[in-house]
Design goal:
288 residues; alpha+beta; N-terminal domain of MutM-like DNA repair proteins; Helicase, Ruva Protein, domain 3; 4-stranded antiparallel beta sheet; 10 strands; DNA-binding
DNA sequence: CACTTGACCTGTCCGC
DNA sequence: TGCGGACAGGTCAAGT
């Protein structure tokens, strides 16, 4: 599920739900999704309290009182689901989860001292959780190469244009998906941003005008801001850590709207494959 | 080097 | 209904 807006929504939810809680025990299924040793877990996780929940790009960081952090990447299908028996009223979407979790997609479970739990579920097993010293997070390869946060106040159109210029011979969709250019954009918001800027995803970066790149910068930020405000995008079954559904898909202009009318010009939206990903475009108002 | 493709996994949907 | 193949909101390694 997660691009920047979804991960940010999870971060905000967890901030409300788990800060101050003390970890009582932890279980995980395989080393692949959680490579730390039992000794690491015992020394740096068990008994620790949650100090902060942060995000960089699509990576979540749960900072612990031991000076270590849990780094979490949800990849395609990861979810963090908080279950606190007293938190949800009758009929709430999370009520059933109290009894249904853990299930076969559960990779990691954190049990807190107060009886509440946090589950990391991941159907496709691409995601991961790892424990490492908080101070070492900036040194991991991903953090070394990842680009700026698109919504940060000091990220300018000029920065964006300069970073795009490093990928002149690839198409603009691949460049937007490249986390070293800008952090946090994924398949949904790449398509939505390019529609907003009336640029076809297959266009070579070197063929974009400065005006187009400036407009793309503006549209990308508008899309990301709206998506964060709406709690991200959710499929029919997903609920976030707080049991709320994201509603951005109600506002999507092209993503998963193939066969429907373009909201700007009325042409029929097409689906194709660009940069190895399913791609949604208006064939008329997005210029190749 | 820059860029593209395949691999990692499981579940679901769609066409025969 | 059964089966095969394509596909799914990401990233890295290996290939050209």
């Amino acid at each position: 599920m997660p691009e920047l807006p979804e991960v940010e929504t999870v971060r905000r939810g967890l901030t409300n739900l788990i800060i101050g809680k003390v970890v009582k025990s932890e279980t995980h299924d395989t080393e692949k999704g959680f490579p730390n040793t039992p000794q690491d877990v015992k020394q740096f996780l068990i008994g620790a309290s949650i100090v902060d929940v942060r995000r960089r790009a699509k990576v979540l960081m749960i900072d612990l009182s031991t000076g270590y952090s849990l780094l979490i990447h949800l990849k395609m299908t990861g979810q963090l689901v908080f279950v606190g028996e007293t938190r949800f009223g009758a009929g709430h979407p999370n009520d059933s989860l109290v009894n249904e979790l853990p299930d076969k997609s559960t990779r990691v479970t954190l049990d807190f001292e107060d009886g509440t739990k946090l589950f990391f579920n991941d159907q496709r097993k691409f995601g991961w959780v790892r424990l490492l010293p908080t101070a070492e997070i900036p040194n991991i390869p991903f953090m070394q190469k990842v680009g700026p946060e698109p919504l940060s106040a000091d990220f300018t159109a000029k920065d964006f244009i300069q970073r795009l210029a490093r990928r002149p011979k690839t198409n603009i969709k691949a460049a937007l998906l490249d986390q070293s250019v800008v952090a946090g954009i994924g398949n949904i918001y790449a398509d939505e941003s390019l529609w907003g800027a009336k640029i076809h995803p297959t266009r070579l970066v070197s063929l974009l005008t400065e005006a187009e790149m400036t407009l793309l910068y503006t549209e990308m930020r508008a899309v990301m801001n709206l998506a964060v405000e709406k709690g991200g995008s959710s499929n029919s079954t997903y609920v976030n850590a707080e049991g709320k559904k994201g509603s951005y898909m109600d506002f999507a202009r092209v993503f998963r709207r193939e066969g429907l009318e373009c909201p700007r010009c009325g042409s029929i939206i097409e689906k194709s494959r660009v940069a190895g990903r399913g791609t949604h475009t208006c064939p008329v108002c997005q210029v190749i």
